[in-house]
């Protein structure tokens, strides 16, 4: 029944009980009133409905109808009976007494019992909500714990990143060193394999002949090839092809009067050829003096380091600078994982609409990520110390090195946050950021060094400066430069102290050695430190700016640029599709009321004024076409429509996710286009796809949202448990959300949307995937939330759900409202048929019954016939409820009917009429007069 303002519910109940004593009140919410009438009183229906029709005006009934029990209600009844027979004791002993009564309510279908309860879920008088500084500190706490839990639950990933950092640094540092035990290298020709040794002999002297003989003998014994050259030895070396590769040493023995000149030649491409040539020469001299058996062995053994420095490693700053790049990129890039996931799954949006401030959100993330980074830097210092890179750890240098790392972290973490806005997937974001950071560090470092060396490039100074300065944008480049320059400076200082006479190679002037490393001069680190500390602030500022002004920017572009251009070139479409005029009287009246009355008089929680949304693609998609609507406090408004009708887009605009192309929305009087931050903290939102942090448990995420809303710390447990109870989630409270079924995730998303102090809650298909029991729990929670004074806007493809919950609804078709009003109003307005279902005991009188129906109800249509069951559409015009029941009671006896039912058109049939007008009109033409 639809009640008028002066409806007398007590009198209506009395009248119904007069005819049907066992009738029960099912629902009394808003303008809707419904009773359950047992079927065994079907014989009294004629009298009851006739009496209702006669007294309709006196009792304050705007309209009424009847529907039969659905299969879902049968499901509840059967499962309840089954359960009560088998497990009644268990249910009674349930510790959750309130919960248990909830379940009974749902399974009994006696909704009135529960709905009569005072609202307990929202703003219970005992719950205190913090504001101001305490609210901000609670939100910071919630955001910080969220971040900690992410790393705690994904510890393997974090460990991998830290091990990657330390491992890569350790590996690259150790692989760059020469071994401590240097090998002894023998300086003979054997180290080059078999070689050709050209030699020339000139003059006639015994000594020369003797030397030549020893040379040949020695070379043969060493498996080398002696090659006597007649004529010019140098020319032979230059022109003989084989010599280019195989001649390492050569010898000339020249006899002059009174002297023999021995000359050893060496191939200057072979590293050890000079000493090998001398060794050959010394050997033949020794052999000629001491006999053929005498020999000399020449070996190369590096000299040991000076006293006390025997373990010191050579310092190599570039090596460390490059070694750090991969590990740092691996760790730092990982900070995009949660931020990208939160943004793409809309979890961040939900946190913002629940009231988290932008500053709190990002600073809490920065703090935790910085702690992890700082701890990792200490581990790197350990590795550096272990590898004896004393320059970074001796004296106060550890502080200087940590300062470089700290400033790098300060700029690199916000850099990663900022760049992560570009990506739509967390894994691809990680890989791409890893490559960007790594290559900006390594290639940037090499390019930077080339740019600094004026001899290597022919660029003008301006180009060189622009290129050099643009590299400063990348934190990894600054880190590499800092470490590289830092090492060079101290290396120079140490060398100048030890070797005072090295002025040929080093500038060891006082001015140079005593200059501060923090100086802004070239080859000092001051510039890089200042750039890192400044870019940290700039990146953070850009993030805050983007978060707070991107909405305005998008709205401005949409409304003042794109839409203006569109209007200019598509006047025909704008006039036809976006005028806002409607053929439906209710939609038109609502629009007129909103446009004509001042906003204050409308006093609505949600006010939608001429809302238009166009997706400017090719071709442009007109998703919402000039919609106006006012939703009051305590109202549950349903938005129905086929897939693609524009419901989600409307929701996205109402929650500040999408910007409107034209028009405005006011929540509690605050404009969504101008005061988005005020609007955000007044909204609860359950999006179409679950926006949950899957590494958390239900308990943890609910506690997080309770903190975001500002529930006082001692009451959070109580508050969260209430909401977990309300959607029957306590048994899953401690399980990770990633293990939940789809239905349970929906329950949790809905509970999150319903909690807090919002004025309006948007539920986008909340019951998708829920079982019937969970759906009833959801209905119960939604009804109680409405009763607590909040407005709820819901979209659903379940007509039954909208029928049960919504005080008013609109059917949306291709972006427009086609009708508007309460479910019963729409059924009465558009449902001009009754649905008659008849079942025969035998089919003997079936044909007679068909003739009877055709003559008794002119215009009726047999919709469906199957195994003795007939399904008719009967026009309701001229056939009142009482008359129809009277006729069918008589027909039951006359035609031997086993059973019959007569019901009003369902909301679903009204929906089909509107949502598919072409089909519906052809159906009506063909089937229903
Ligand atoms: N981001 C987008 N870019 C372009 N077009 C879009 C975008 N989002 C939605 N649309 C289009 O806008 C229209 C309305 O889509 P919307 O998602 O609002 O429908 P809906 O009624 O919520 O459908 P459903 O019931 O399937 O959720 C559709 O034609 C859709 O293709």
Automatic annotation (TrEMBL):
The keyword Nucleotide-binding applies. GO terms for molecular function: ABC-type transporter activity; ATP binding; ATP hydrolysis activity; lipid transporter activity. GO terms for cellular component: membrane. Residues 606-839 form the ABC transporter domain. InterPro entries: AAA+_ATPase, ABC2_TM, ABC_transporter-like_ATP-bd, ABCA, P-loop_NTPase, R2_ABCA1-4-like. The chain crosses the membrane at residues 155-173, 320-340, 360-381, 402-423, 429-451, 525-546. Pfam families: ABC2_membrane_3 (PF12698), ABC_tran (PF00005), R1_ABCA1 (PF23321). This is ATP-binding cassette sub-family A member 3-like. Its main location: membrane. It is a multi-pass membrane protein. It is found in: Membrane. PROSITE patterns: ABC_TRANSPORTER_2 (PS50893). Keywords: ATP-binding, Membrane, Nucleotide-binding, Translocase, Transmembrane, Transmembrane helix. PANTHER family: ATP-BINDING CASSETTE TRANSPORTER SUBFAMILY A ABCA (PTHR19229), ATP-BINDING CASSETTE, SUB-FAMILY A (ABC1), MEMBER 15 (PTHR19229:SF243). It comes from the Eukaryota. SMART domains: AAA.
């Amino acid at each position: 029944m639809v009640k008028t303002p002066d409806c007398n519910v007590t009198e209506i109940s009395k009248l119904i009980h007069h005819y049907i004593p066992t009738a029960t009140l099912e629902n009394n919410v808003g303008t809707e009133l419904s009773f359950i009438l047992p079927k065994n009183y079907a014989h009294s229906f004629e009298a009851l409905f006739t009496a209702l029709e006669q007294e309709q005006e006196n009792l304050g009934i705007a309209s009424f109808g009847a529907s039969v029990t659905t299969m879902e209600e049968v499901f509840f009844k059967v499962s309840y009976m089954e359960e009560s027979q088998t497990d009644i004791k268990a249910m009674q002993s349930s510790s959750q007494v309130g919960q248990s009564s909830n379940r009974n309510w749902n399974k009994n279908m006696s909704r009135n019992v529960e709905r009569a309860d005072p609202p307990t879920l929202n703003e219970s008088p005992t719950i205190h909500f913090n504001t101001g500084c305490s609210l901000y500190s609670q939100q910071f706490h919630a955001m910080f714990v969220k971040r900690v839990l992410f790393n705690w639950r994904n510890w393997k990933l974090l460990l991998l990143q830290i091990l990657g950092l330390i491992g890569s640094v350790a590996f690259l540092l150790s692989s760059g060193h020469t071994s401590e035990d240097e090998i002894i290298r023998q300086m003979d020709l054997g180290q080059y394999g078999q070689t050709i040794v050209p030699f020339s002999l000139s003059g006639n002297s015994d000594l020369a002949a003797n030397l030549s003989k020893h040379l040949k003998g020695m070379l043969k014994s060493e498996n080398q090839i002696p090659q006597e050259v007649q004529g010019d030895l140098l020319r032979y070396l230059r022109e003989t092809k084989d010599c280019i590769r195989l001649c390492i040493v050569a010898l000339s023995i020249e006899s002059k009067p009174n002297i023999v000149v021995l000359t050893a030649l060496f191939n200057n491409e072979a590293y050890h050829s000079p000493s090998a040539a001398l060794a050959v020469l010394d050997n033949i001299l020794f052999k000629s003096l001491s006999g053929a058996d005498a020999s000399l062995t020449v070996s190369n053994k590096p000299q040991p380091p000076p006293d006390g420095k025997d373990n010191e490693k050579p310092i190599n700053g570039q090596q460390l600078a490059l070694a750090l790049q991969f590990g740092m990129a691996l760790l730092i890039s990982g900070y995009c994982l949660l931020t990208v996931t939160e943004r793409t799954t809309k979890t961040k949006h939900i946190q913002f609409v629940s009231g988290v401030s932008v500053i709190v959100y990002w600073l809490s993330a920065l703090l935790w990520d910085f702690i992890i980074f700082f701890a990792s830097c200490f581990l790197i210092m350990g590795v550096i110390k272990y590898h004896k890179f004393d320059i970074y750890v001796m004296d106060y240098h550890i502080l200087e090195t940590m300062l470089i790392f700290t400033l790098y972290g300060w700029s690199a973490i916000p850099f990663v946050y900022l760049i992560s806005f570009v990506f739509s997937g967390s894994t691809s974001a990680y890989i791409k950021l890893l490559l960007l950071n790594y290559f900006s560090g390594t290639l940037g470092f090499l390019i930077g060094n080339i740019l600094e060396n004026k001899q290597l490039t022919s660029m003008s100074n301006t180009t060189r400066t622009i290129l050099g300065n643009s590299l400063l944008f990348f934190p990894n480049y600054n880190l590499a430069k800092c470490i590289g320059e830092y090492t060079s400076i101290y290396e120079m200082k140490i060398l100048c102290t030890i070797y005072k006479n090295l002025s040929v190679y080093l500038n060891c002037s006082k001015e140079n050695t005593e200059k501060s490393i923090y100086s802004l001069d070239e080859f000092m680190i001051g510039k890089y430190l200042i750039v890192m500390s400044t870019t940290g602030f700039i990146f953070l500022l850009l993030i805050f700016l983007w978060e707070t002004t991107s909405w305005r920017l998008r709205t401005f572009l949409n409304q003042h640029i794109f839409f203006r251009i569109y209007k200019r070139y598509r006047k025909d479409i704008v006039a036809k599709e976006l005028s806002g005029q409607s053929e439906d009287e209710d939609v038109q009246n609502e629009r007129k009321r909103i446009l004509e009355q001042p906003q204050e008089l409308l006093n609505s929680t949600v006010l939608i004024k001429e809302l238009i949304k166009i997706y400017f693609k090719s071709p442009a998609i007109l998703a919402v076409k000039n919609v106006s609507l006012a939703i009051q406090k305590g109202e549950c408004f349903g938005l129905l429509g086929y897939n693609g009708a524009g419901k989600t887009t409307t929701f996205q605009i109402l929650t500040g996710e999408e910007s409107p192309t034209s028009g405005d929305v006011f929540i509690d009087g605050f404009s969504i286009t101008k005061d988005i931050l005020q609007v955000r903290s007044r909204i609860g939102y359950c999006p179409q796809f679950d926006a949950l942090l899957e590494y958390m448990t239900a308990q943890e995420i609910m506690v997080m949202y309770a903190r975001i809303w500002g529930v006082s710390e001692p009451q959070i447990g109580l508050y969260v448990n209430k909401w977990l109870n309300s959607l029957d989630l306590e048994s899953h409270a401690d399980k990770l959300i990633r293990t939940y079924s789809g239905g349970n995730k929906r329950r949790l998303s809905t509970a999150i949307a319903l909690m807090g102090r919002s004025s309006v809650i948007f539920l986008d298909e909340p019951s998708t995937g829920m079982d019937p029991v969970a759906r009833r729990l959801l209905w119960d929670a939604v009804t109680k939330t409405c009763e607590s004074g909040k407005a709820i806007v819901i979209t659903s493809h379940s007509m039954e759900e909208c029928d049960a919950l919504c005080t008013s609804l609109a059917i949306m078709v291709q972006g427009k409202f086609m009708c508007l009003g309460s479910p019963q109003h729409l059924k009465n307005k558009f449902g001009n048929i009754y649905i008659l279902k008849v079942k025969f005991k035998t089919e003997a009188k079936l044909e007679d019954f068909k003739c009877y129906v055709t003559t008794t109800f002119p215009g009726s249509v047999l919709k469906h016939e199957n195994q003795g069951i007939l399904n008719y559409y009967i026009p309701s015009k001229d056939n009142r409820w009482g008359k129809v029941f009277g006729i069918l009671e008589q027909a039951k006896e006359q035609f031997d009917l086993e059973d019959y039912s007569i019901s009003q058109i369902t909301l679903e049939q009204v929906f089909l009429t509107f949502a598919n007008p072409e089909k519906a009109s052809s159906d009506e033409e063909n089937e229903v007069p």
